[in-house]
Each structure stands twice: as C-alpha cells, then as structure tokens.
C-alpha cells in the first residue's frame, strides 16, 4: 500500500461510500462530503411505518454481482432475498400480463408472426455477449427492422418515448441491449431496505476512523499546480486532500471545477426524475411493475412495492410508486407536488376505475435534477475519463458506466475499479 493518504470523496451514494469503505480498510484517512442530510444518493430512503423505504423504486438483479458481493461482505447476506414479482403493461385501456415469456407472446396486438419476431429479437439480445456491435445504432431503428414495426409500436416505442420523450429516436441500441441482456426475472431486495447497506458502510467507515459529513454542498474544487485538491463548501468550510474522488453528476462537477464550456463533462445530457410514494390503505394494481404504454399519460411507470414485500412490513400500508423521467424545465418537474398529485389521480383511476383519492393515507414526493443520462450513439465518445484536468482529482460518476446508465451494482463496481487504479484498496 502507498503511504497513508488523506482522501476526500464527494457524494455519499453507492460509489462514494464503497470507495471510502475500500480505502479506509487499508488505513487511509477518509472524509466523505455529502450535500444532503441522508445517505444513498438516488437510493436514499424515507420512512414508512418506521421502516426505511427508497425514495425511488429500487431492486437488484441476480446478475448484479458487485452489489451482491458487497452486501455479503457487510454481513447482510442473510437479509438479501430474491423474489419473482409480476409485470404488466397498461395499453389501449386494458391491463396486459407481461410477466412470463408466454404472457409476452400472447400480447393482444401480436399476430403469430409478431410473436415470433418479438421472441426472436429478444432472444438475440439475450444471447449477444457484448453490445459493442450496437454502439452506432439507434434502438428504435434496430427494433423496427428486427422485432417488427407492430411489436415496436406496441411495446418498445411507448416505453422509450415515455422515458426519453422527444429524444426517444436518438437512444442508443447499446443502451437497450444492456437493459435486456443483463436483467433477470428475479429481483432482489434487502429486508429493511437498501438503507441498511449504506448505513453499514457508513458505520464501517467511521469505526475505522473515517468521517461522513452531511450538509456539505460543494461550491468549488481547485488545485494549484501540484498542491492539494481544495474543496470549498456552501457553509464556508474548506478541505484540503491528497486525493479527491468526485461522484456527483458531470455538470455539477464541471461547475464546481470551473471547467470550460467545451469540456466533455458538459456535453452528455441528463433528464430529471420525479417520484411519488403513495401510502395506500389497499392495493391499487395487480402487479409489482406496470409499464404505462399510453402516450397521453403524464407518468412512465407505476410500481406497487408491496406486491413484492408484504404490506405488514410497513404497518399494513400498500406502497405505490408513480415515477417519471422528464426535462428539468418540464411542468411535471416544476409543478407544486400537491397539484401534480391531483393531476395524476384521474390517470390512476383509468388504470383502476375503483381508485379514489381517499385511498391515499400519506404521500411523499422526491425529485432529482440529474437522474437519467440520455444515452445516444454519440454518448460513448463524450464519456469523460476518470482522470480530470486536476492531477489529484478523479471523476467517478454514473455517466461512465456505459452502456448501462445507472444502477447500484454498476456504481459499486466502478468504485472498486477506481480505488484499485489509484492504489487505494487492498
């Protein structure tokens, strides 16, 4: 190991806390600076019935090896359980089962040829081991050719337009390949929520002499010559570090570092995320996950978390997420949350005609400005290196996990790659 280093990390999400955990275990002095007052980044939690619950719906897949390994490493392996929840699509005013391959082939808009093309194109994407061949292709163009226009119009185009809006035609096929190839039908969840993982990381860091400080919104990052990296926060505090790892979104880093407008970190674009957590007195949908494939709906997906985790965990409340990815200037991002919920209720009633506003006992609303990178064929060339113009500053952000776009497991894996490259872990 190198000499003991004074390491700073900006961001207490999966990447930042994993990097801190790795570094502190081999004797480095570590300080994590987090702007919010909670752990987890986009996996941060609120409480329902005294139990942590993610602000934005979260689960992991059987293929998420890095996250599974970290959970086991922290002694939480027995708390990780895998489930086989159900999936549906809302389209044409009806709920369509979409859980099993057999369900998928029976989609009411598919004829026999469409079913074969859907199955064949999906199987191909599962079989292809590397998605490099799709780097220069757009998803919808590929799908229209191989899955067919009818299948694309019924399944894929509504999903991409619901998620990316006017940018749907630009989305990379490599991104879609990664979503299909790497995912499994089984979903994993930690008893008591993923908050337990982040709390265990924080406790482990602090037990070994590290620090996790909240309310530390970074205003500037500077380095003069070979000197330390200096971080100044909005509360007036200042820190000097031998080495700094920044895990915030690219634009936030670029602004703090004073990088020129032509810098690569400015060029990749992000959508914001909004998410309601509705605490209901009864179940609202018959599925865990419901994709909304109706173009006039103002939200992308409805997820009934308590179709996977028993409502008794949350004091009998049924947990319904209503989620969106939108431009930060979009009315769904800027509207008062109470007014926004009133707008959404009639659409929830279209899904379930019995739904009443009175079913909602309590609700929570969260939004994040930089939640979903827009992965286009040009995206890969714009991904910045981990190295930055400042020799002591390393960037490790979700825009660098191409062709994936985010995810706890990919964040953990990236953290470990970065700490290994910097000689900060065992």
From TrEMBL:
Domain Amine oxidase: 15-399
Coiled coil region boundaries: none
GO molecular function, a single term: oxidoreductase activity
Name of this protein: Protoporphyrinogen oxidase
Species name: Streptomyces sviceus (strain ATCC 29083 / DSM 924 / JCM 4929 / NBRC 13980 / NCIMB 11184 / NRRL 5439 / UC 5370)
Domain of life: Bacteria
Cited PANTHER family: AMINE OXIDASE, PROTOPORPHYRINOGEN OXIDASE
Gene3D superfamilies in alphabetical order: FAD/NAD(P)-binding domain, protoporphyrinogen ix oxidase, domain 3, Protoporphyrinogen oxidase, mitochondrial, domain 2
InterPro entries for this protein: Amino_oxidase, FAD/NAD-bd_sf, Zeta_carotene_desat/Oxidored
């Amino acid at each position: 190991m190198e000499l003991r280093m004074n390491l700073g990390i900006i961001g207490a999400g999966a990447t930042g806390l994993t990097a801190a955990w790795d570094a502190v275990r081999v004797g480095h002095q570590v300080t994590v600076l987090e702007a919010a007052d909670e752990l987890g980044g986009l996996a941060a939690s609120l409480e329902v019935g005294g139990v942590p619950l993610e602000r934005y719906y979260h689960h992991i897949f059987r293929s998420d090896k890095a996250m599974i390994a970290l959970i086991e490493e922290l002694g939480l392996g027995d708390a990780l359980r895998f489930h086989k929840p159900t999936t549906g699509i809302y389209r044409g005013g009806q709920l369509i089962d979409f859980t099993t391959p057999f369900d998928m082939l029976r989609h009411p808009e598919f004829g026999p040829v469409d079913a074969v093309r859907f199955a064949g194109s999906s199987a191909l994407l599962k079989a292809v081991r590397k998605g490099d061949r799709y780097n220069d292709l757009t998803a919808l163009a590929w799908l229209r050719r191989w899955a067919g226009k009818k299948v694309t119009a019924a399944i894929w185009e509504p999903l991409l337009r619901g998620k990316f809006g006017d940018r749907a035609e630009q989305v990379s096929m490599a991104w879609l390949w990664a979503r299909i190839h790497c995912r499994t039908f089984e979903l994993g969840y930690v008893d008591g929520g993923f908050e337990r993982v982040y709390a265990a990381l924080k406790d482990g860091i602090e037990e070994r002499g590290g620090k996790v400080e909240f309310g530390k919104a970074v205003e500037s990052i500077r380095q003069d010559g070979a000197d330390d990296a200096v971080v100044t926060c909005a509360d007036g505090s200042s820190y000097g570090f031998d080495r700094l790892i920044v895990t915030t979104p690219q634009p936030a880093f670029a602004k703090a570092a004073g990088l020129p407008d032509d810098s690569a970190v400015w060029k990749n674009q992000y959508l914001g995320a909004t998410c309601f957590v509705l605490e209901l007195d009864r179940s609202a949908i018959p599925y865990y996950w419901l994709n909304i494939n109706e173009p006039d709906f103002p939200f992308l997906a409805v997820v009934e978390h308590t179709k996977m985790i028993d409502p008794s965990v949350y004091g009998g409340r049924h947990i319904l997420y209503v989620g969106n990815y939108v431009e930060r200037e979009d009315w769904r991002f800027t509207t008062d949350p109470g007014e926004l919920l009133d707008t959404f209720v009639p659409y929830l009633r279209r899904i379930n005609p019995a739904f009443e506003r009175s079913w909602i006992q309590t609700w929570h609303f969260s939004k994040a400005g930089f939640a979903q990178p827009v992965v286009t064929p040009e995206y890969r060339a714009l991904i910045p290196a981990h190295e930055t113009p400042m020799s002591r500053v390393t960037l490790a952000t979700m825009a660098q996990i191409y062709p994936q776009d985010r995810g706890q497991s990919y964040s953990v894996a990236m953290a470990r790659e970065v700490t290994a490259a910097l000689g900060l872990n065992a």
